[in-house]
Design brief:
Layout: E1 3-12, E2 21-23, E3 26-29, E4 33-34, E5 47-51, H1 52-60, E6 74-77, E7 89-92, E8 95-102, H2 111-116, H3 121-124, E9 126-132, E10 134-136, E11 141-145, E12 154-160, H4 162-165, H5 173-183, E13 187-194, H6 199-211, E14 216-220, H7 231-238, E15 241-242, H8 244-255, E16 268-271, E17 274-279, H9 283-293, H10 296-306
Helix pairs in contact: 5-9, 6-7
């Protein structure tokens, strides 16, 4: 159901990492963000929003902060932004924004953190892209619109390879995942190349699942018997529930191609409403596994997970 709110202030800055300054109005440009703002560009964090209620709560703790102090572009009233699903849209006059990320990671703390020892933007702020251009100013009414029910499934891929991350080997498996999923109608929103291991992979799986709310994440590589093959361990560590049937089915199918598939330790599981699936490292095996999963079993499972479909015992697909 649509809900109404209000713009309290709009802010911009000429460079990243500093407080933004309150301005009378801003121009939002489709596909880019706010004209003249440092965060404008063709990426998924074009315009940041923060709720007035969260700023007021912070001020009650004794912090004297102006609008824009947390690096936010638009201060809004009437929404608990952090509880909204990715894909939520905001209509402000002619402008239309779409929510792409909840919160953020802070690798280098912003100016307000260094001043008062805390910042609410990583916890309470959200990020959007601009779908339709328009001017925004304080006092404007915001209409919150639920995610498009027909929006495609979102996906991301992560390649695990020490040599690939070091630039000693070309990653062909990750881009192949993007190609196959895109052809199948998925919106592939991120791709990463990481060294083998647990901690960096855990961090990225958590970020993609919690902040970007990606529907399905595929990893490729790191599923064998080498001491550095730790992709299943990272996957199991971040998942709330495992989906062993996927990994078992992929192993069984791959066994029809090569007996070496029995050495795979690949896992599959869910973190909240994100499905994580480990794939082998070779491009040939990646293609075979995805062709086996697509379109029926994977899409049916995602619909069940996201509440877009009912389980059907009469179907031959897994429920």
């Amino acid at each position: 159901m649509n809900k109404m709110g209000k713009v309290i202030a709009v802010c911009t800055s000429a460079r990243k990492g500093i407080a933004k300054t309150e301005v009378p109005s801003v121009r939002l440009t489709a596909g880019m963000g706010i004209e003249g703002d440092a965060h404008a560009g063709r990426w998924h964090r074009q315009v940041s929003l923060l709720a007035l209620e969260k700023i007021e709560d912070f001020r009650k703790k004794g912090a004297d902060v102006d609008f824009g102090a947390f690096g936010e572009n638009i201060i809004v009233e009437g929404f608990d932004l952090r509880t909204l699903p990715v894909g939520t849209r905001f209509r402000i006059g002619n402008a239309l924004l779409e929510l792409t990320q909840i919160g953020k990671e802070c690798h280098t703390h912003c100016a307000i953190y260094h001043q008062v020892g805390d910042c609410i933007m990583p916890r309470e702020g959200v990020f959007t892209i601009v779908l339709e251009s328009g001017d925004v100013r304080p006092g404007d009414v915001i209409e919150m619109i639920g995610p498009d029910p027909d929006r495609p499934f979102t996906a991301a891929w992560i390649t695990l390879s020490d040599k690939g991350a070091a630039g000693e080997r070309e990653d062909r498996s990750g881009p192949l995942i993007r190609e196959i999923l895109t052809q199948a109608g998925f919106d592939v929103i991120e791709g990463l190349l990481l060294p083998d291991g647990v901690e960096k992979l855990k961090q990225q799986l958590i970020r993609l699942a919690d902040q970007r709310q990606v529907n399905v994440i595929f990893t490729t590589g790191g599923t064998g018997l080498s001491p550095r093959d730790l992709t299943p361990e990272a996957t199991i560590a971040v998942c709330d529930r495992m989906v062993p049937g996927i990994a078992e089915a992929l192993r069984a199918y791959s066994m029809t191609k090569t007996p070496m598939a029995m050495l795979s330790r690949a896992a599959a599981g869910m973190r909240k409403q994100t499905l994580i699936i480990n794939l082998p490292g070779s491009p040939k095996a990646v293609r075979e596994c995805l062709e086996y999963l697509l379109p029926g079993p994977l899409e049916h499972g995602l619909k069940i997970m996201l509440g877009r479909d009912r389980e059907c015992a009469g179907k031959s697909l897994p429920s």
